[in-house]
Amino acid sequence: MEFKQLVGSxxxxxxxxxxxxxxxxxxxxxxxxxRLSSRAVNADFAKAIVVERDSLSDEERDSLKTPTTQAQLxxxxxxxxxxxxxxxxxxxxxxxxxxxxAGALNPSHGWSHxxxxxxxxxxxxxxxxxxxxxxAVLVCVESGLAICQSLLAAVDEGLGTQLTxxxxxxxxxxxxxxxxWIPLWLQLLGxxxxxxxxGGQRPRGPFEEMFFEGRYGTPFRRxxxxxxxxxxxxxxxxxxxxxxxxxxVRGLSRMFGLPE
Amino acid sequence: MSEDLEGVSGPGPGDLAELASVQRWxxxxxxxxxxxxxxxxxxxxxxxxxxxxxxxxxxxxxxxxSLFREAPEGRRIKLKRRRAVMAQIDEFxxxxxxxxxxxxxxxxxxxxxxxxxxxxxLTATPLR
Lengths: 260, 128
What we know:
Strand order of the largest sheet of chain A: 1-2-4-3
Mean pLDDT of chain A: 96
Helix content of chain B: 55-70%
Number of strands of chain A: 6
Number of helices of chain B: 7
Shape of chain B: globular
Radius of gyration of chain A: 21 Å
Distance between the termini of chain B: 22 Å
Largest sheet of chain A: 4 strands, antiparallel
Distance between the termini of chain A: 35 Å
CATH class of the largest domain in chain A: Alpha Beta
Largest sheet of chain B: 2 strands, antiparallel
Number of strands of chain B: 2
Number of helices of chain A: 11
Number of domains of chain B: 1
Order of helices and strands of chain A: HHEHHEHHHEHEHEEHH
Strand content of chain A: 5-15%
Mean pLDDT of chain B: 90
Oligomer: heterodimer
Helix content of chain A: 40-55%
CATH architecture of the largest domain in chain A: 3-Layer(aba) Sandwich
Strand order of the largest sheet of chain B: 1-2
Low-confidence stretches of chain A: none
């Protein structure tokens, strides 16, 4: 799928074909996309555990649900539990030197092994690592970048996907994650039972209230010609709900025996 | 379904229609789905709800109120109570269905719909 159309076509899918398993190669592709995301100090902030829904017992599945995530967890055949690893930047001293050696961080921009050893590690990274509040922000943002790529890769593979909450306390003994990992999201994977466009692109706030030019309060001018071009490229699509969406939701509810 | 619900104890369907929680449900259901239910559809839903209220020895208003508590920061849902009610609905489904999962589910979903449109987030295990 072309990139602009891919960005415009991603939806949070909440109805999956529960009988349609996901090919292992597609799961790997989703993870590979996450691995290649932009990341500070080239550290592995995002960690994930892939679980086949049907490998869990009924009790385990139920324990992982939250009030509004029950149905989609039962429907999606693959669950990816995403965590952030606060220990990740501890490799910074080594990983930054690797970037120097790889020609990514160069003397033209002031980078050298000595700069990493004498300045970046002791004066920048170490204070961040020792400040839990700052560290949490850093690792969660960096992990979010990886998760975003995994969402787009899933859509590109023809899958439905969604980030949803999970009971992280219940997940600990099941997944046996290290205590210091920060639970983020549960990403569901499966083939959509609903229309892949989810009944239309979700409503968003006005562009001019989100993005500014020069200083806060001066909206970034949105060029209608660009909007038209993005519509043609399917990045901007028809806004939800399509006229038939309610009928689709009702049909899905009845097919799966879900309440109305 | 209607025949299954005859002769049960608890409030009758007509007794429920004026209750605040029931009115809120029927109004919200109509607004959400953009339709006006027929009198017989409403009567059927009320009959199922009345059956459930007899089943758990409660009233619709009390059932909803039992799921919330007042806290300094506002109304809060009681999660343990919610789980207990969900289990009651599952049990109700089995009793009403008498081995027919779809019949039981239809009844259970009437009760779930009532609670959902009164602000109690819950759903059912999908039939698959």
